[in-house]
Amino acid sequence: HTAIEQHYINPFENNIEAIYTFPLSSSAVLMGVEIHINNRKLRGTIIGANEADEKYEEAIEEGNRAIMVEKNHDGLYTVSIGNLLSKDKITIILEYTQLLEWNQDRIKLSIPTVIAQKYGNPSNLNLDNATTPESSSTADNRFTFDMSVTGILIDAIFEAPSHEIEIQKLELLTKLKLVDKTDSMDRDITIIIESKKDHNNRSFALVGKDFEGYSAIASFFPAIDSNYKKESKHVTFVVDCSGSMSGTSISKARIALTKAVINLDEKDTMNLILFGSNYECVFNIPVPANAKNKNIISQAIDQMDSNMGGTEMGLALNEAYNQNKEIDISSYLFLITDGEIYDHERVIENAVQSEMRHFIIGVGYATDSALLNKIAQSTAGSFENIDPNEQMDQSILNLFKKIDMPKTKSLKVQWPEEVTERDEPKYLYDGDTLFAMAKFDKKPIGTVMLEYELEDGKIYSVNCICKEDEYIIDKNPSKVARIVANTKMLKLNDDTQVKSLSQQYQLFSEETKYILIDEV
Question: For the residues 55-66, what does the mean pLDDT come to?
Fold first, then answer.
């Protein structure tokens, strides 16, 4: 549960309009917006986008304050405050929930504070609806940060590679805050939580009221026997060498690649593609991963730098896909980038059609995690975001090991009550959290079981018990129900259905906006 407070003041003598675009985690589900105007607490509502625009303009014309919050696309939101009166003080509190995910023994929590500059001209890509927020290199936006941890993570090891934090461990609570009272919003906040104990307690299921019925979320921590047989594979390494990767990012990329190449066997094939404004292939075709070819690639890795211009990621990926057409063994793409491009939809579509699983490392102070995670999920791969100051060796090795894991042959979740709607993943990886969601007419009580079979024939199962979330017992629809509805909404292609679900559950979508009118 996270609350972000944004404070606005009009220091001028005239009324102004303030427009502020900001990022949120791509996995964040906005639960509510609370607005304080000169110490008065107000709440608005989510309505259709066109209707919200009309109400906003009408309010401004009539001399009233109007506050509108809209979702631009994954991870980006904009607040518009019309008729901010002279000396007005306005606080906007955004409350959101996200599901935390284990990656082996670590949980990583990222709070974005930066919108990085993207490469390219959106109009050249026929993306006329793409907008680039205005920014200032001289503005010094400051923030404070406090975090409280309870439950099984209370005595975990905490690390913040992005910022200096102070950790205070109490009997029933662990508190984290900035060493300096405030800091500049020039890089995303990264908190790493590590705990090797309580593996059996990492799976759980939460139940919440959902209008006339119930919704549930099961969070499983699956494990796979490490004694699996490695099959021959082809891996194409694709590395971003654009200017945005300069400094620590490109250094981390060299470390990542070197460790990954070492883990290839002679029966595997490989290639390395570097890209910026154009792309360069170390080999014209995929080659065996023998000592000679590994040495050639290692030399190319040592010499690579962030000097290749812009981020034409699509061209490099398409070259990898074309080379893959001649491969008759399982093929994987290992991508290292900050992902700052405009052409999201085309890149995701091409990745899916390639039939290559994408394993992606996002490196930088403000990576486009929403895009990179979507590419990985759409291709049954995996994504790991690395802070430039983070010790990344183990993360890279864990990600690369997933390439050799047996593929999921079948996966099913058995709930203790009859299901009316379900949402279940199709694949899993050892040590990664897996979420399953469902809706019911009757309250599910008892055991939820995940059973999965891998291509090597081994069958596994994980159990957990349904329990009601203590935070949402008195709410209808509950937080659980709204998370389930949001997950469903993100997969819909029908704008009318998205709008309806968004208004019903008061969730943010590109078809709706939050609006508050305050009469002056």
Answer: 95
| Residue 243 token pair | 């200017």
Helix (H) or strand (E) holding 210: strand 204-210
d(C-alpha 145, C-alpha 211), whole Å: 35
Interatomic CA distance for residues 85 and 66, integer angstroms: 11
Over the stretch 439-494, which tens digit does the pLDDT of each residue have? 999 999 999 999 999 988 999 999 999 987 655 555 789 999 999 999 999 999 99
Give CA torsion, residues 315, 320, 324, 330, to 10 deg. -130
3-state secondary structure of 229: coil
Rounded-to-integer distance, Cα 342 and Cα 127, Å: 8
CB contact at 8 A, 515 and 48: no
Interacting residues of 401 by C-beta distance below 8 A, sequence separation 6+: 263
Please, are residues 383 and 373 in contact by the beta-carbon 8 Å criterion? yes
- 88 strand-pairing partners: none
DSSP 28-85: -EEEEEEEEETTEEE--EEEEHHHHHHHHHHHHHTT-EEEEEEEEETTEEEEEEEEE-
Closest CA to 3 of 115, 98, 140: 98
CB 450 within 8 A of CB 204: no
Predicted local distance difference test score (pLDDT) of residue 121: 60
Q: How confident is the model at residue 127 (pLDDT cuts 50, 70, 90)?
A: very low
